[in-house]
Amino acid sequence: MPTFVSGKRIAGLMALLLAAFALVGCDQSNREWHGKDISGLMPPLEFELIDTQGEAVNASDSEGQVRLVFFGFTHCPDICPTTLARLSQAVGKLPDNERERVTIMFVSVDPNRDTPEQIAAYTHFYGDRIAGVTGSEPQLRQLAKRYRTTFGYDEPDENNNYNVSHSAGVYVFDTLGKARLLLRPDLTVAQIRDDISALAQERRS
């Protein structure tokens, strides 16, 4: 009888160990990402800007969301429309419970032309999971510098039209606001979706 009880205990311990290994297997820290892993290389998400209602907004307002931060401008002829369309498609392919935990943040670095109303109309075209924000040029410069990027303005033409140079990368922050990934322009919609899905499923403390 004692041997039998010991066997049951061993079986129980084995079951606990298997469960522990299963949990370790679900740990996203060992995952191979499609995007570039920037964990520990960038500071957490932090900003003071204005939203499409002209109201002050900061990172804590979207706390608990996976946030995809992209710098651009509404007059952008190519990179911005392509990027926002791909991000919106990727988020749209997520299950409802995951999609609700994701926000695409479009940061306009062209405050002279991009009013809150114009940004609202622009982002609405690409889907309802996109939040448009902007700010003063010093605020935007500070934010860009925080994430080791920059932007610049070309000389305006006779009609005051000008291009804005900016990064094509997308910074991804997890639900705790920690910088996790940099999405490159060459990633497919499916690859972006996989990375976002993995972060949306995380339960981190």
UniProtKB/TrEMBL annotation:
It comes from the Bacteria. It holds the Pfam family SCO1-SenC. Gene3D superfamilies: Glutaredoxin. Residues 1-24 form the signal peptide. Cu cation binds at residues 76, 80, 166. Keywords: Copper, Disulfide bond, Metal-binding, Signal. Disulfide bonds join 76-80. GO terms for molecular function: metal ion binding. CDD domains: SCO (cd02968). Belongs to the SCO1/2 family. This is Electron transporter SenC.
